[in-house]
Amino acid sequence: MKIAFVGKGGSGKTTLSSLFVRHLAACGAPVVAVDADINQHLGAALGLNEEEAAALPAMGAHLPLIKEYLRGTNPRITSADTMIKTTPPGEGSRLLRVREDNPVYDACARSVELDGGAVRLMVTGPFTDADLGVACYHSKTGAVELFLNHLVDGPGEYVVVDMTAGSDSFASGMFTRFDITFLVAEPTRKGVSVYRQYKEYARDFDVTLKVVGNKVRDQDDLDFLRAEAGDDLLVAVGHSDWVRSMEKGRPPRFGLLEESGRHALSLLHSAADATYERRDRERYTRQMVHFHLKNARSWGNERTGADLAAQVDPGFVLGERVTASA
Ligand SMILES: Nc1ncnc2c1ncn2[C@@H]1O[C@H](COP(=O)(O)OP(=O)(O)OP(=O)(O)O)[C@@H](O)[C@H]1O
Ligand SMILES: [Mg+2]
Questions:
Q1: What does the pLDDT look like over 129-160, one tens digit per residue?
Q2: Residues 254, 256, 260: CA angle, nearest 5 degrees
Q3: Which residue from 234, 318, 324, 325 is spatially nearest to 275, judged by alpha carbons?
Q4: What are phi and psi of 53, to 5 degrees?
Q5: Residue 256 falls within a domain, yes or no?
Q6: Binding site membership of 215 for ligand 1 (Cβ less than 6 Å)
Q7: What CATH number is associated with residue 217?
Q8: Residue 305 is assigned to a structural domain of this protein
Q9: Which ligand sits closest to the CA of 184?
Q10: Which GO terms describe its cellular component (predicted)?
Q11: E-assigned strands of 22-157?
Q12: Contact (Cβ atoms closer than 8 angstroms) between residue 307 and residue 138
């Protein structure tokens, strides 16, 4: 299951994605956690100290390796240099699985021990001022997009992405790569305006979007979110002393998280699992092709000097293979 946490800056994306990752690990589920947020804090939220977080390999720095590996023997992709972030897999491409070992994980993932088990953590790497210009920012999150587009994940396997909600993810198509998107919103006008914008983009692409209220203090806060988000509001989370202790560098055992927080996390978990039967592999593949052709036309063909439409394998559908060891 591919799951994104998006929202306004400071809304609690990193906090809630890290809690969700801890919850999944405590359930014994295999998890790949991905930090694709402009502010790279997921490692710290998963308990890494500054030194450990700084030592994480950046996916953005391993793009050539990622492309070379994923390209495999796909004859439509003549070189890694002509592979852009939206280049879809086809016959001969190498696909990735949540639970296997592969050169992409070797280069980009690190194991993080949590209560209940270890998860894999991958990070795009810190964004510099220059990255925030559209093209380069794309190249960092592009590694994540390639990862998602080549991933065959089954039920009970999770990829959780902490992500910036912004025009970048809309242009690249990244926002369509998830089984479910949790939009974290504080009960403020700014918080819900990001929701509205996302909903608007999501409408044409069958994106499953659910609002998770955060820092909700009272009934008035809850009523506000309900009035703005209606049935899209899945659950609301209040202030958490557990989170506050963690921020102080004194993380309590995960089992000590407040009951309301644990309840919210299990709702997120079942909402994510419930999307599985609505998966449409043809549509998923069609959308990656749609965004690839769009990016090819707008900058990719010119940048690579190749006709990137020729990379599309018309007969290919990204499919999942559930391993028997589940
Ligand atoms: N439910 C909560 N209880 C207590 N503190 C919280 C809660 N949610 C978020 N916070 C705190 O609010 C701050 C912002 O949260 P967080 O870093 O998760 O937001 P973000 O959306 O990832 O922000 P950014 O856009 O900077 O990446 C953090 O200090 C976090 O600890
Ligand atoms: Mg964050």
A1: 655 555 544 567 889 999 999 999 999 999 99
A2: 100
A3: 234
A4: -65, -40
A5: yes
A6: yes
A7: 3.40.50.300
A8: yes
A9: 1
A10: cytoplasmic side of plasma membrane; cytosol
A11: 31-36, 109-114, 117-123
A12: no
| Binding site membership of 10 for ligand 1 (Cβ less than 6 Å) | yes
- Beta strands 109-114 and 31-36 are unpaired
Range of the domain at 228: 2-311
Residue 319 lies in a domain: no
pLDDT tens across 67-124, in order? 999 999 999 999 999 999 999 999 999 999 999 999 999 999 999 999 989 999 999 9
pTM, two decimals, is 0.95
Q: Return the amino acid letter for 1.
A: M
Mean pLDDT rounded to a whole number for the chain: 92
Distance of alpha carbon 153 from alpha carbon 276, whole angstroms: 10
- In the reported structure, the alpha carbon of residue 127 is separated from the centroid of ligand 2 by a whole-number distance in angstroms of 13
Domain tally, the chain: 1
Q: Does any ligand 1 atom lie closer than 6 A to the CB of residue 285?
A: no
Measure the CA–CA gap between 242 and 261, rounded to whole angstroms: 9
DSSP secondary structure string for all residues of 193-207: HHHHHHHHHHHTTT-
Residue of the CA atom closest to atom 1 of ligand 1: 239
